[in-house]
Structure prediction request, 126 residues.
Amino acid sequence: QLPVVESGGGLVQPGGSLRLSCAASGRTFGYSSIGWFRQAPGKEREGVSCISDSDSSTYYADSVKGRFTLSRNGTKNTVWLQMISLKPEDTAVYYCTTYPRPRCPNRMFPQDFASWGQGTQVTVSS
Prediction:
C-alpha cells in the first residue's frame, strides 16, 4: 500500500483548470510537510510546490507561481493542488510526496523526500 495516493489528473485545454488531490493512506500525514513534483518525458523530476506542516506556509516554483495553489484540510490527511491557467508545458506526471520535517525545504530535491505516490497524469493540449 502506497503511503500517499494522488488523483485528479486528466486532459485539459490550455487555459483550463484542474485540481489534484493527495490523500494519506494512513490516518494522517503525521508531522510531515507535503510536496508535489512533476516529471515530463525526457526531463528531470521538478519540484512544484510544498506546504509546511507547522504553519501551512507554501512554496511554489517560479514556473507555477500565481497559477497553482496548494492547500490542506484541518485533519491533515488530504492536500489539494489547484491549477489554473494551465499551459502545454505543465504536461507531466504529477507526484505527491512527504518531507519528514515540519517546514518545507528552501529548495526541493527529490532525494530529500521520503514517500511517493504512483503519480497522476496531467495533459494540457488542444
User: Anything to note?
Assistant: The chain has a mean pLDDT of 95. The radius of gyration is 13 Å. Strands lie at 4-7, 10-12, 18-24, 33-39, 46-51, 58-60, 68-72, 78-83, 92-99, 120-124.
